[in-house]
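Researcher: I'd like a candidate sequence for this fold, 378 residues long. If you have to choose between options at a position, lean toward the conservative one.
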């Protein structure tokens, strides 16, 4: 990886309707509200870009919300601004999230015109009853239409989001969902288990959720079934055909520097972590004044950077590189974590492969407990 390059995240907080499980910073909007927000985004990007000295951008991820909600002319202003304010690497990966029912050939054409070359479509389930229960705005037929539309527009790198362990779902139903989507041959599949978040409609309901053993088996079935279709698991919840790993998300787990733009967006820059205000009016008014909108600014200590290196790196199936650890922190990983690594290797939760440490299949299922052991005393 070229350490001189930068990643960008752009948050579009607009949705047609908020899903019943969602706690993301998003909600319905008007056209006037969308336009005001895009202009605020442009002011923030212009201000930031003046301090970057044309540092090359290697990946961009436009997430939400539902970035495919705004109309063509609104998004075109944003995408033109991106190109005006930042220097892109020749092979930059530029992703946009989209939901079925919000895409049109015209929107897809605009995305392609401005260099978006990867699209992530939020299916969640190919079963219409499950989609309705989740509060999604689309059905499976609309997803198929959007998927084919993206192919016809020239997208040769498509991710499909799926969700398992949802209320009433059986292991056999999940296995069928995996096969059904894999048959479409997207380049990438993200498969996440449902998490019940406080403050969501799901948190207020009595839900018939699969038990722990069933959820465990669903996770194992995901890797096994997708593997038979040629997908390689490279991260806890992500599977890709060879050469189609999401470079942007891999950058997060490898602690590459990234800047987030928009409401609530987070950043990691040098030794700083910070996030933008979550208050829309404050963002619209002050987006060009970085000292006003940036909140929760944290200067990471060396120990905190080491902890993050471990927490994030162990999400990747290839694990932690001893060589990269020493290059980054000037000390051998065994000098700091030797006892912990050897303990979990001995009980089968971690393995040492050549010069890398990674979680085993068993270890992935108890990763939260394991990662807690990598906290360092200040």
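Model: Candidate sequence:
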């Amino acid at each position: 990886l070229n350490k001189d390059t930068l990643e960008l995240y752009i948050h579009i907080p607009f949705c047609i309707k908020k899903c019943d499980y969602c706690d993301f910073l998003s909600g319905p909007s008007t056209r006037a509200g969308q336009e005001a927000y895009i202009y605020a985004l442009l002011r923030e990007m212009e201000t930031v870009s003046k301090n970057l000295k044309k540092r090359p951008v290697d990946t961009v991820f436009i997430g939400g919300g539902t970035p495919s909600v705004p109309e063509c002319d609104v998004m075109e202003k944003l995408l033109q601004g991106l190109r005006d304010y930042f220097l892109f690497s020749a092979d930059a990966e530029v992703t946009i999230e989209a939901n079925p029912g919000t895409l049109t050939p015209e929107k897809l054409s605009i995305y392609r015109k401005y260099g978006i070359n990867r699209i992530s479509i939020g299916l969640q389930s190919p079963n219409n009853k499950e989609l309705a229960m989740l509060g999604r705005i689309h059905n499976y037929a609309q997803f198929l239409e959007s998927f084919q539309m993206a192919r016809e527009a020239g997208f040769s790198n498509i991710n499909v989001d799926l969700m398992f362990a949802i209320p009433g779902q059986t292991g056999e139903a999940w296995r069928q969902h995996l096969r059904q989507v894999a048959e479409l041959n997207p380049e990438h599949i993200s498969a996440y288990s449902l998490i019940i978040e406080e403050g969501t409609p799901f948190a207020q309901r009595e839900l018939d959720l699969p038990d722990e053993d069933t959820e465990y088996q669903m996770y194992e079935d995901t890797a096994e079934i997708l593997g038979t279709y040629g997908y390689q698991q490279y991260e806890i919840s992500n599977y890709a055909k060879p050469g189609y790993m999401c470079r942007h998300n891999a950058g997060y787990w490898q602690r590459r520097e990234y800047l987030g733009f928009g409401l609530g967006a987070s950043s990691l820059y040098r030794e700083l972590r910070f996030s933008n205000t979550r208050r829309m009016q404050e963002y619209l008014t002050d987006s060009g004044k970085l000292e006003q909108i940036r909140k929760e600014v944290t200067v990471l200590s060396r120990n905190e950077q080491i902890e993050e290196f471990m927490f994030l790196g162990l999400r990747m199936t290839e694990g932690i590189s001893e060589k990269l650890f020493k290059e980054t922190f000037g000390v051998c990983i065994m000098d700091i974590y030797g006892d912990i690594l050897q303990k979990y290797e001995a009980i089968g939760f971690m393995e040492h492969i050549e010069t890398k440490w990674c979680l085993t299949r068993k270890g992935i299922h108890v990763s939260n407990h394991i990662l807690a052991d990598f906290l360092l005393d200040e």
